[in-house]
Backbone:
């Protein structure tokens, strides 16, 4: 009995870990969508490039695991944020007045471009980022991987910080204002261009952080971004595109469903079941779990 | 002069919406602009507030040329625009809407509190609704919030487009009464379908037709003009 409960809790923690990684990535997509109404299909590759930046930084930083892992996290966050900012400045900003479909196509182009870049530069091999938290800790009668605990705690802290930023700081409130009414934002003197830039930087940073957290467990490879991207998008749609709590809830639901199904049933069917549930949610509630039907002013 | 618009031309593509508009507003004035739908009132407002770039002509505010500046710069200079359609932040509270109204002066925390008290005195209902989401309020309350938001940064000039839209006659009247109270700090250019209402509180008025100013003068003179009576006052 004890063993079964322990197993279940570990499966649940595994689900939460993956779920938070999904949530951090989906948050970026939903924030960008909120501001520009563009589904940024290239977002997953910010995550992937962040992971490679982390891998490179860790290799350069040397053998001290504590230092190299911190270097990996910082590099991943910085590079992903930078790729986000550049995607806006070089691509999306130029398309603001173009028909919406142009930005969709550009996003897909950007997705392939970044993936091709990684494949050409780093090759198809799996790379590894080492973590100093490569051990098990005892919590009561539970043995849990320390890296998983780190992922849980730092994801929760990051999301709490994001909420603080959006709800309590004037820049964060302005970001929500631009998402709700871009014209209203300009009427009160908000520079929407600057806010959009900040949104891309935050979205990128979140993806880079997620990549550096999960890379010691899942490795680093060129299509890691595309794989995650698909899931992150489904999560955003299920949570209601542009809806921040929805992206978090959707990510956690997908992570936990996947993990429980993989832990108790045939792991090969994991994606099918998880996506099946997400599609079912959409059929029952087309506007998403937290979505609203009204449009913005 | 606070605002001097000279020979202003604005075109959408090849269609000229404003054809050489001249208009002036002095400090402490309430000025009405009267015209039917499509006459160019909203275009004039959007051009002054920086949302539309003029084709030619000059807009001087407080002695400075402002034609072609961005909306952000215009707000910072001291002109706010409360447009038809309001463009509030529907999911944010009344408080946050007003906080954002003060965005251009955001570092001045004490100034914000004073302005907040000021707009709450003008529109006491907003104080009661301070934590309510803007989008859940009645149309009249939203209109008051939109005007209050535009007053937050203590503008020198308020561009008020159709303020009585969605308001009961009684509320409309109290909004216009408010204009008289604020006009010493904030001059007002107001466009209004209900011309008789806005002319009663205005100092001067302009009549705009097909993108041109057809008539201007003291509000009571404009109100007494037989053509204006027939076309806009329904008398």
Residues:
């Amino acid at each position: 009995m004890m063993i079964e409960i322990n197993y279940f809790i570990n499966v649940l923690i595994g689900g939460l870990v993956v779920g938070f990684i999904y949530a951090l990535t989906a948050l970026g997509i939903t924030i960008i969508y909120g501001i520009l109404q563009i589904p940024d299909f290239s977002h997953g590759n910010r995550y992937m490039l962040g992971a490679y930046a982390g891998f490179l930084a860790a290799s350069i930083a040397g053998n001290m695991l504590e230092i190299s892992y911190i270097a990996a996290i910082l590099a991943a966050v910085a590079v992903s944020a930078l790729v986000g900012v550049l995607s806006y400045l070089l691509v999306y900003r130029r398309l603001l007045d173009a028909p919406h479909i142009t930005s969709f196509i550009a996003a897909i182009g950007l997705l392939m471009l970044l993936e091709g870049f990684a494949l050409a530069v780093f090759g198809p091999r799996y790379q590894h980022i080492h973590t100093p938290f490569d051990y098990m800790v005892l919590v009561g009668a539970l043995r849990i991987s320390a890296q998983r605990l780190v992922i849980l705690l730092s994801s929760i802290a990051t999301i709490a910080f994001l909420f603080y930023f959006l709800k309590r700081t004037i820049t964060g409130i302005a970001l929500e204002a631009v998402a709700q009414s871009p014209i209203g934002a300009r009427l009160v003197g908000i520079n929407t261009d600057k806010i959009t830039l900040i949104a891309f930087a935050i979205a990128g940073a979140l993806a880079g952080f997620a990549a550096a957290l999960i890379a010691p467990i899942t490795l680093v490879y060129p299509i890691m971004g595309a794989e995650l991207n698909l899931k992150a998008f489904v999560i955003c749609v299920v949570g209601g595109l542009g809806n921040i709590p929805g992206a978090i809830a959707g990510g956690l639901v997908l992570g936990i469903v996947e993990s429980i199904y993989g832990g108790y049933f045939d792991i090969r069917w994991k994606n099918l079941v998880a996506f099946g549930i997400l599609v079912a949610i959409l059929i029952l509630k087309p506007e998403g779990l937290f979505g609203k039907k009204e449009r913005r002013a | 002069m606070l605002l001097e618009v000279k020979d202003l031309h604005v075109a959408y593509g090849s269609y000229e919406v404003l054809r050489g508009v001249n208009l002036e507003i002095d400090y402490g004035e309430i000025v009405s602009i009267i015209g039917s739908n499509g006459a160019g009132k909203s275009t004039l407002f959007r051009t002054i507030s920086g949302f539309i770039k003029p084709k030619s002509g000059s807009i001087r505010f407080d002695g400075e040329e402002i034609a072609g500046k961005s909306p952000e710069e215009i707000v910072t200079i001291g002109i706010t625009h409360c447009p038809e359609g309001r463009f509030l932040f529907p999911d944010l509270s009344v408080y946050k809407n007003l906080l954002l109204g003060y965005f251009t002066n955001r570092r001045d925390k004490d100034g914000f509190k004073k302005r907040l008290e000021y707009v709450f005195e003008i529109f006491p209902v907003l104080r009661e609704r301070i934590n309510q989401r803007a989008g859940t309020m009645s149309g009249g309350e939203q209109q008051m919030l939109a005007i209050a938001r535009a007053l937050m940064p203590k503008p020198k000039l308020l561009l008020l487009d159709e303020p009585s839209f969605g308001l009961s006659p009684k509320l409309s009247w109290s909004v216009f009464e408010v204009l008289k109270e604020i006009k010493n700090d904030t001059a007002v250019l107001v466009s209004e379908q209900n011309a008789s209402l806005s002319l009663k509180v205005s100092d001067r008025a302009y009549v705009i037709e097909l993108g041109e100013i057809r008539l201007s003068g003291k509000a009571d003179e404009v109100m007494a003009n037989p053509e204006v009576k027939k076309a806009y006052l329904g008398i």
Remarks:
- The two ends of chain B are 34 Å apart (CA to CA).
- The mean pLDDT of chain B is 94.
- The first strand of chain B starts at residue 3 and ends at 12.
- Chain B touches chain A through 31 residues (CB under 8 Å).
